[in-house]
Amino acid sequence: MERTLIIVKPDAVQRGLTGEIIRRFEARGLRIIGMKFMQVSDELARKHYAIHDGKPFFAGLVEYITSSPVVVMALEGTGAIAAARNTIGATRPGEATAGTIRGDFALEVGRNLVHGSDSVENGQIEVGNFFDESELISWPRNTDPWIFEGR
Ligand code: DAT
Ligand code: MG
């Protein structure tokens, strides 16, 4: 089962979109295995966005993600990485399709509301960066057989 790290970013929390964003991932069928409200430290932000270190927008990106609290979620599901990214929409909200989170609620790349892991490997790494193993709960959801065929 794939895992993805979702971050409801500071702009989304400040704008009162936390519930709407969680609702969309829940409705998609992804199973929540971890969730918490937190302030991202400078150190964790730099680790999370290490791949973008050196790019012109890196400093602004770290400042943004650490500026105000976020909600982080670890989600599990078949094809969770692609499913979550499709629910989120294109990185640049101007290019995001209507019906996606960014396409419905955002306008600018530097205020694009939500993060989702971009590969199976990064999903595992990012969930590990934000959650202790003891904070993750593997639980049988009563609706699983109606969402995951053969389970
Ligand atoms: P995504 O968040 O869709 O995975 P990404 O990993 O390429 O996108 O970049 C991480 C974040 O960095 C993105 O959500 C917003 C910011 N960002 C990316 N490219 C940018 C750019 N050209 N100018 C400003 N911010 C950018
Ligand atoms: Mg990314």
Describe the structure.
By secondary structure, the chain is of the alpha+beta class. It has a single domain, classed as Alpha-Beta Plaits (2-Layer Sandwich), CATH 3.30.70. The protein has eight helices and four strands. It has helices spanning about 10-15, 20-30, 40-50, 60-65, 80-90, 100-105, 120-130, 145; strands at about 1-10, 30-40, 70-75, 115. The chain has a four-stranded antiparallel beta sheet with strand order 2-3-1-4. It is globular, with a radius of gyration of 15 Å. The chain starts with a strand and ends with a helix. About 30% of the residues are buried. The model has no long low-confidence stretch (mean pLDDT about 100). It binds 2'-deoxyadenosine-5'-diphosphate and magnesium ion.
Short overview:
The protein is α+β, with helices and mostly antiparallel strands. The chain has helices at 10-14, 18-28, 42-48, 58-65, 80-88, 101-105, 120-130, 144-147; strands at 2-8, 31-38, 70-77, 114-116.
Topology:
Elements: E1 2-8, H1 10-14, H2 18-28, E2 31-38, H3 42-48, H4 58-65, E3 70-77, H5 80-88, H6 101-105, E4 114-116, H7 120-130, H8 144-147
Antiparallel strand pairs: 1-3, 1-4, 2-3
